[in-house]
């Protein structure tokens, strides 16, 4: 239940009144938390099939070869979960100048429709969810929806992310597009 701020009048003297605003602590805490969560989304039409783009995004082991600031990527386990679905436990390392961290994620793949990674490492992130969705567009193209939301556990990391978050998020999409070109030897431009 969400409480709205209430205005309360308190008499200060016989002929004056002051207005105070009361706000629920829980609403204030939610407002502060939501302000620290970073979100980015992007939609593109690519001249690659849904399956091709899915395969590049689902190949977590190769991320360190092409994603900016990713210096380590390793899948520790893969668990099939149905005919077109599997889950992975993966570790990623990110680094930028003096900042370097590793974290674990649970990656769920729904071939060829979706790849979602959720950080399971609470020491670095309070929240990190990356979602890629792939939709057929034409016979040789697909629509890609990329969404990322995160909140660092450390105020220092959160402050640093304010400077580079949007730029790095855009670089990620470009890195995956470039990787598709590299893997499939196609020089097709974006539609």
TrEMBL record:
Gene Ontology cellular component list: mitochondrion
Segments forming domain Coenzyme Q-binding protein COQ10 START: 48-176
GO BP term, pick one: cellular respiration
SUPFAM superfamilies: Bet v1-like
GO molecular function list: ubiquinone binding
Subunit organization: Interacts with coenzyme Q.
Protein name: Coenzyme Q-binding protein COQ10 START domain-containing protein
Organism: Absidia repens
């Amino acid at each position: 239940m969400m409480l709205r701020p209430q205005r309360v009048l308190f008499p200060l003297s016989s002929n004056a009144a002051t207005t105070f605003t009361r706000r629920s602590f829980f609403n204030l805490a939610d407002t502060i938390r939501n302000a620290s969560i970073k979100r980015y989304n992007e939609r593109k039409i690519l001249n690659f099939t849904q399956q091709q783009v899915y395969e590049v995004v689902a190949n977590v082991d190769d991320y360190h070869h092409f994603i900016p600031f990713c210096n380590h990527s390793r899948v520790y386990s893969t668990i099939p979960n149905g005919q077109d679905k599997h889950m992975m436990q993966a570790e990623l390392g990110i680094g930028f100048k003096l900042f370097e961290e590793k974290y674990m994620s649970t990656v769920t793949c729904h071939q060829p429709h979706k790849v979602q990674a959720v950080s399971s490492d609470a020491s670095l992130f309070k929240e990190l969810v990356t979602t890629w969705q792939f939709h057929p567009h034409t016979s040789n193209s697909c629509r890609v929806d990329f969404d990322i939301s995160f909140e660092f556990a450390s105020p220092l990391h959160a402050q640093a992310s304010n400077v580079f978050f949007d730029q790095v998020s855009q670089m990620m999409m470009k890195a995956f597009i470039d990787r598709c070109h590299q893997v499939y030897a196609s020089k097709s431009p974006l539609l």
